[in-house]
UniProtKB/TrEMBL annotation:
Keyword Transmembrane helix on entry: yes
Annotated localization: Cell membrane
Transmembrane annotation, as ranges: 21-46, 58-78, 85-106, 112-132, 231-253, 259-282, 294-311, 317-344, 356-376, 382-400
Pfam families xrefs: MFS_3
Gene3D superfamilies xref list: MFS general substrate transporter like domains
Membrane topology: Multi-pass membrane protein
Major location category of this protein: membrane
Keywords: Cell membrane, Membrane, Transmembrane, Transmembrane helix, Transport
Entries under PANTHER family matching the protein: INTEGRAL MEMBRANE EFFLUX PROTEIN-RELATED, MAJOR FACILITATOR SUPERFAMILY ASSOCIATED DOMAIN-CONTAINING PROTEIN
The name this protein goes by in its record: MFS transporter
């Protein structure tokens, strides 16, 4: 088995020839569709059982509560535990929890407390699985194919969001038990796919050397120390705030103009279709745009599109504008997630991802409250203008950010044309330069710049990954490892890095 940083030069150039990725992705297509199906049926079951919208709200809140309270500790635990085991246990627990719902229906013992507990377990398993999947992906997919893999995962989620709700409603209409049985079976089917993953997930569970609290906050500390990741997450949080509030505002806006429930459903379907189309397009588009243009351009596109909602009363046109905004989202996600996967030290991937999810998803309750306040005080049209103003502020902030303007390129499979290395961008970011095309560095200089920019601990595996991202093309695994070890030793001799434990070939900044 070959870690991603030392992939053989003969590694598959297509994801669909990567058996382990296909097994993981295919299983998650089924599982994600099942989750969307039961997610639609759950509020219908609560309303059909108690007739209380507040009870439906309690169950829904229970399902999202883990997103707020569990992400940080889950990230620390994912980095301590075997990630393949976390993936399997998460799917099994979610499937077993779902099976209790049809059992309760058959016995006539359905209660709000039981459904809330099931929703909480599902949400908790979703948190652990998502963090473990992102952290394990570099062990399954070569670095050059990571953006494409992430784009396929985006398409998977968007497609399930489009197909799952009507499927869940249809199954619920046939029998109340069917959506939950289908979802439980989908989790078990995903477990079968996970059994085909044999690649080392890259983390070695060891005895913890720091407290759980310090380990939990390590991701937040890493994010704050790195300007590009910090700026990207703040932009994500602001865009999530806008778009989470936007959905409710658009529904009220359409109703304000007299749209029927069917028309509103069609409007939201068109909106979701734009996201699916964007996810499919992102598998190729990410190769044709620099990350800098995506981060800045996406925010300006959203800033230009949002005011258009205030000038139309047609729900179909509202849906079309929404589809245009949703089309851009997957490309944005591919760039940001790929950056995190490539730049973050593997031993911190779970914790940094958990910090990112806490920051970016933590704004959603605020968005819901803010949308309600705006609708009450200024009405749906005024609320649209308020969100448009926030999006304009985000676009200006993205354009003005030095870290975003000096964002390095992502690794690609196409190396025919020369391109500046990531280390060149790191040096230029420190010196405040924008023109980096002519910067040429030796392998040792490139590695030194990346170590200074990212910090953390450095072993042979991580050094090879940094050199590959910087443009180094070794003839094989042995040559890559030898080059990385030589550069690390020379940098230690120069006093840039040090080796705290003589028994381990692990370095850190001196």
């Amino acid at each position: 088995m070959t870690p991603p940083s030392t992939q053989k030069t003969g590694a598959p150039r297509s994801l669909w020839r990567n058996r382990e990725f296909v097994a993981l992705w295919s299983g998650q297509v089924v599982s994600t569709l099942g989750a969307q199906t039961s997610g639609t049926a759950m509020p219908l079951l609560v309303l059909g059982t108690t007739g209380s919208p507040s009870d439906a709200g309690i169950v829904a809140a229970s399902g999202t509560l883990p997103y707020l309270i569990a992400h940080l500790p889950a990230g620390a635990l994912v980095d301590r535990w075997n990630r393949r085991t976390v993936l399997l246990v998460s799917e099994l627990c979610a499937g077993l929890a779902l099976l209790t719902v049809p059992a309760a229906l058959w016995l006539g013992r359905v209660t709000v407390a039981h459904l809330a507990a099931v929703a909480f377990v599902q949400g908790l398993c979703f948190v652990f699985f998502g963090l473990a999947e992102r952290a394990a992906l570099p062990g399954i997919v070569p670095t050059s194919l990571l953006p494409t893999a992430i784009a396929h995962n985006e398409a998977r989620a968007r497609g399930a969001a489009l197909v799952g709700p009507p499927l869940g409603g249809a199954l619920f209409g046939i029998s109340r038990t069917l959506p939950f049985l289908a979802d439980a079976l989908s989790y078990f089917a995903a477990c079968v796919g996970l059994l085909f993953i044999r690649t080392d997930p890259r983390n070695r569970p060891t005895t913890p050397t720091e407290s759980l609290w310090r380990s939990t906050t390590a991701g937040l500390r890493w994010v704050w120390r790195h300007p590009l990741i910090r700026a990207a997450l703040l932009l994500i949080a602001l865009s999530n705030l806008v778009f989470h509030a936007l959905v409710l505002i658009l529904v009220v806006l359409a109703r304000h103009h007299g749209a029927t429930p069917t028309a509103i459903g069609t409007m939201l379907g068109i909106y979701s279709a734009g996201g699916l189309a964007g996810a499919l397009a992102a598998t190729r588009l990410h190769r044709h745009f620099t990350p800098r243009s995506v981060i800045i351009g996406a925010n300006w596109i959203w800033a230009a599109l949002l005011p258009l909602f205030a000038f139309t009363s047609d729900p179909l046109l509202i849906g079309a504008i929404g589809a245009a905004t949703a089309f851009v989202g997957p490309l944005w996600n591919v760039v940001i997630i790929s950056y995190g996967t490539v730049l973050v030290p593997n031993e911190l991937l779970g914790r940094v991802n958990s910090a990112a999810m806490t920051l970016s998803w933590g704004v959603m309750p605020v968005a819901s409250l803010g949308a309600g306040y705006l609708l009450t005080t200024v009405g749906p049209v005024g609320a649209v203008w308020a969100l448009a103003a926030l999006m304009l502020a985000a676009a200006i902030a993205a354009t003005a950010s030095p870290a975003v303007r000096s964002a390095p390129p992502l690794p690609t499979t196409e190396e025919s044309a020369p391109r500046p290395s990531i280390s060149a961008y790191a040096v230029a970011a420190v010196e405040g330069e924008d023109d980096m095309a002519e910067t040429q560095l030796t392998h040792k200089q490139a590695l030194a710049a990346v170590i200074q920019a990212l910090g953390g601990t450095w072993d042979t595996e991580r050094a090879v990954l940094a050199l590959r991202v910087a443009g180094y093309e070794p003839t094989g695994d042995e040559a890559a490892g030898k080059e990385a070890r030589r550069n690390l030793r020379e940098l230690a001799e120069d006093g840039l890095i040090e080796r705290p434990d003589p028994e381990q070939a692990v370095y850190r900044l001196a």
